[in-house]
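ping. complex inputs:
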Amino acid sequence: MQVISRAIQKQMENASWIRRMFEKGMELKKQFGADKVFDFSLGNPDIPPPARAREALLAITEEAVKPMGLGYCPNAGLPAFREALAAWLTNQQRVPLESKHIVVTCGAAGALTSFFRAVIEPGDEVLSPAPYFVEYGAYCGHFGGVLKTVPSLPPSFQPDLPGLEASITEKTRVLIINSPNNPTGCVYSQQTLTKLGQLVERVNATRERPLFLVSDEPYRFLAYDDVTIPPVLPISPFAVVMGSFSKSLSLAGERIGYIAVNPALPDVGLLVNAVTMTNRTLGFVNAPILGQRLAMALLDEGVDLSIYDRRRKAMAQVLTDAGIKFAMPQGAFYFFPKAPGGDDQAFVQALLKYNVLAVPGTGFGFSGYFRLSFSVEDSVIAGSAAGFAAAAKQF
Amino acid sequence: MQVISRAIQKQMENASWIRRMFEKGMELKKQFGADKVFDFSLGNPDIPPPARAREALLAITEEAVKPMGLGYCPNAGLPAFREALAAWLTNQQRVPLESKHIVVTCGAAGALTSFFRAVIEPGDEVLSPAPYFVEYGAYCGHFGGVLKTVPSLPPSFQPDLPGLEASITEKTRVLIINSPNNPTGCVYSQQTLTKLGQLVERVNATRERPLFLVSDEPYRFLAYDDVTIPPVLPISPFAVVMGSFSKSLSLAGERIGYIAVNPALPDVGLLVNAVTMTNRTLGFVNAPILGQRLAMALLDEGVDLSIYDRRRKAMAQVLTDAGIKFAMPQGAFYFFPKAPGGDDQAFVQALLKYNVLAVPGTGFGFSGYFRLSFSVEDSVIAGSAAGFAAAAKQF
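pong. complex structure:
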């Protein structure tokens, strides 16, 4: 019998590469033991939350056990948290944000689906540079949106701006960027952003239905070597920023993120109200109350970034020693090296023989490369060196 | 400029009655002081969480601050929580459930949207007895589903079974029931459920694409006067149960619920995998990790139900004294009385003059009645007596 819909049936048949590698990893760990498997497939932040998390959770406990302590909160988020986020984001984005421009969401993922539901008409297109975060297609596809992609320019992986502009049609409702980028580790320069803002201005000059520039930026906190991550809101009144505390505070499982809309957007209040409503009617209702209180308490804290930097350098050494070509990541916790031999799926299969798990670039819409998450213990990086070297030798 | 989609624009114009009353209430509280306003408009559980919640949260804190303590968990939920839920639901539903039949969700709302996304083709119909929970239309509408309703039979508000059967077409994908019912307080009898099971069997005997019987039951824990709430899974292999701990543990803001599929459903594994995927791609990713741990720790606990029963009796007295006709609620925490004079919107307006907030039945697809939530302090009930009496006298 047909218990699921045709669209979902099709999506399940095309199960994501990340998921497939995850299942392969489970198998290998069972067979060889977890310490013999070198799993770079998942972006699950493994650094403990900031030290103040214990103290904050103890205080939250006392609030939580009161009447209504865990009750519904306004759909857009705890008023005090929205206020705090407004101040925090004003400082970060260099645009004067008030709480009325912000909705607290279930992670950046919940921000994206709530936003897509609010703005997309069936048949609208969402344009993204490739490689891209694998879920964008599903996120907009729920509401009849269609993902289109334009390859970025290796080795730096800055976006192909003329290519993006040439791909914009009347149906393009959203241009989405992700910097620091998953999977490439690229940080978009100020020059890139300025040009993106000009591009959006040119497009919207002739439009009644605006093109939005969406910045999906859960890795904003994580850049290396004094690279700066320029704010996106100042580059266009049509810019919308979505972020999350999943990685910056290592609370990915508690699902806390936000959407911040440029106050200069025409009808900004209407859009914020619409997202507040879709956040409710998609079933989120409100972002989890314990997580909101925790993120509010830890807003000025962060996980220890020196750990990520140390791993980045160790991973770079392993790849260099194996003769694998890569651009050093400027941000986030991923490498996106060139697959020796050029066939990413073949190379990822070769790595598997040495119990090394990676994800082929094909899974991110960009073949010929592969992704490594270095959100893993130092011992995993060190232990993988022989496997990378042996696999690379075969190509 | 058109910053939001046409469908969402239309939904915003038809803002829910609950929301309108909420805003009216905010206004009145500002003007007269919160203690002078008698707000029966919201179903926000105000009884504190069970006493063991403090101890549980302290233990959870120690887990949370470890590496990965707040990290992503499997999309379907913490394995230990799914196991515990399987045992708990097996006992409650009288059907042998295993963890593989269960997905932990962001409340019952998240269960409904994830399920609708998994099974609905554009144009499919969702059939519900009226009055009904106001969000059903939006929940299925995201994915091209259309809500159809059939009036239930006052004064008991048991469903109109022949009416429901006559309304089923080839496009009817889901028949959704809600017992104990919001807003009527009605509990569906065993006889009603048995007949519903037979109805679903007749429909599915000729179908390749089954009709699902969805039981939305966040109030299963709350019945009065020794009324029993019969389990729904045993009545049909096509039955799917969705529940939440929002009311039973007073943690509505933390968003923890579940979906349990009858193991006898053909392709049960495919449906559970599909819901696990849609739960991920709708942006929930996984139900909040702190809430999952808390609900697991408190699974055999409950809030103090005698408080709700005391309020129910006090509210009944207030209505009786005002000469307002009602059926005594068998479960949940709502009254759905007949509007004196017959015009629910006019009567709710009259109540407003006495600072009493209620929601017209029109907001639930059933005019001539109005809803009162008695999840409020005893003093609110007592303080409202004069207002109810004075308003009723005008009709």
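The radius of gyration of chain A is 21 Å.
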